[in-house]
Amino acid sequence: MATRADVLFAQTTTLIQFNGGGTQYVVQKANGDLFLFYVDSGSDVAFKSSTNNGITWSNPTVVFAGTVTALSVWYDRWSDIASDVVRVAYSESATDDTLYRGVDISDTALPVQGTQTSIFAGVSTATGGNLSITRARGGNLYCHTMLDAGAEGGFYRSTDAGATWGSRTINETLATTDQIILLPGWGADNQDIMAFFWDASANEISRQLYDDSADTWSETSIAASMTDQVATIAFPHFAATVDIANSQNLLVAWSNVDTLNSDLRCWTVTDSTITEVTNVVLNSTDDQGLAAIGIDTTTGHWYVFYGGKSDGSEVYLTNINIYYKKSTDSGTTWGSETLLTTRLRDITWLICTPRFVNHFGVAFHSDVSLDEIHYSAKLPTTGGSIMIN
Q1: Cα–Cα distance measured from residue 183 to residue 194, given in angstroms and rounded to the nearest whole number
Q2: Which of 81, 150, 228, 268 is the most buried (most CB within 10 A)?
Q3: Does the predicted TM-score (pTM) go above 0.85?
Q4: How buried is 188 (Cβ within 10 angstroms: 0-12 exposed, 13-18 middle, 19+ buried)?
Q5: Rounded mean pLDDT of 319-344?
């Protein structure tokens, strides 16, 4: 893979793409087709697809028209489930609810949207919050939502593919700036799930395991002295993906943001073990942040993406590029820092293809005055020419 593409994907609305702290990803099907769900310039949930590695994108399809404040997506195949449904959760500030819809992308040209259902009915929406949705390997759906500055939200489960939702035991007392990523668990009970929880007040990231049959949580610290940055400035600074081949989840996180000697740390996490591998970036020279991680499902290689050059020559948020490093040995060593994007921008939000084949790419929010989402990728090459699927 050698050819880089960097294209304008869509216009959006300032901050809404990431202000609500929603976990998002670029979805890639097994055949390489891409789907990107986003909040458009009208504050609606929409998606576009690409059949040529992100070089061009379809016209947008609206999933929900309203005043969206947070968005989260999960693809069934990331839970090792043979289904092409993308699970979409979104919070909005008109009726102050968190809602759900499944989108079947089996046919890229004719995706099918399911019925919208309610996960959580709130009373008001305020700044701050988080939203994450996932599917257990056994099929249950789970959503963690907080939409009113720490006062409203909870943890919810659906046992019928999103048709109905019921409240379950919350993992923590809700707080405005806490952040969470829900993922499948890897224990004997395939309905159990895992969460990576960033406790802003404690400056700590922990692994939280949800026992579905007992409706209980357990918690183990992953790392202390982890200074968060609120999502209203930029997001995310920690990211995760599923390593299905090895029955584990991968986590990356900055120990601090835009600060001298910050580290971009990395762990492998199962239900029983937490193992830190080599830092992706050690002792940053300042002006770095943002994080995303993906796995090449053909080779098993890991790719970690972040904002800002490690020599400190760029200015965080104002003028940065996106870079990546690759590990071919499960995080024991990392390759050289490689430029992905094509010019300096004020980048404030970053997501990637968490599991990919054929090519990898990232979506990012930049040019705050223009409110643009861009897509940048490494494309497969054959004889020096771009190969179009």
Answers
A1: 5
A2: 228
A3: yes
A4: exposed
A5: 96
